[in-house]
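Can anyone check this?
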Amino acid sequence: MTLRIATWNINSVRLRIDQVARFVAESGTDVLCLQEIKCLEDQFPRNAFAEMGMPHLKIAGQKGWHGVAIASKLPIEHSDTFRACKLGHARCVSGLIAGVDVQNFYIPAGGDLPDRELNAKFDHKMDFYEQLTETVERQDRSRRLLMCGDFNIAPSEFDVWNHKYMSKVVSHTPGEVQTLNRLQAAGGFADVVRDAFPEPQKLASWWSYRAQDFRVSQRGLRLDHIWTSPGLTPSVVPGSATIHEPVRAWEQPSDHCPITVDLDV
């Protein structure tokens, strides 16, 4: 069986539920991991997901901010969520689907100043990564584990529109990149999107709302990721990883577009 998994920072699931339904129908997605749903669990549009063939849900909601969810065509069994947020925000949700342990994250953006002492938001981001890395280090690498979501770090010079400029901006500073690399190394994760599109090809999954036409400005960042553990990477269907950039051009879009990968499970 082929399982298509998507991750998408939707930036308000209720506002963009029609876009979600369109994307699920057009992409053939089986499991959809959402970030920034921006609603409580009892406000989540469950009926709409049932109508689009995704009745199985795991939701961690928060009023007006953050929030993550997994919607699936297949049953979701319990999985221990990798909790790493010291402030208790709704930033992590997980589930076991067709034998794949899906961990979905909305990692803090970190504010504007890359200084842990002067910027509490940046310290929160770095602490989140440190706690998550410690958790990953304890995992069995043979576990069929998929980690995805809005990681809020673009790791490579080919994941940003201008490496020299962005190296001074939160999301691509050297300290953040090193922190992300440590997390990836801790679990031996494959970056399935980058593996499908090797450097030096430029990639992006987020474009600022400030640009009137994101395709003209081309100031994108690859902040959204899908990683697979050594136990799951052999199941990745070669060439299946896709960045759905056209979705960013839909009417009243999220500033992120979805990314997908197929697994042979």
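Reply from J.R.: I decoded it. The domain at 2-264 is CATH 3.60.10.10 (Deoxyribonuclease I; Chain A).
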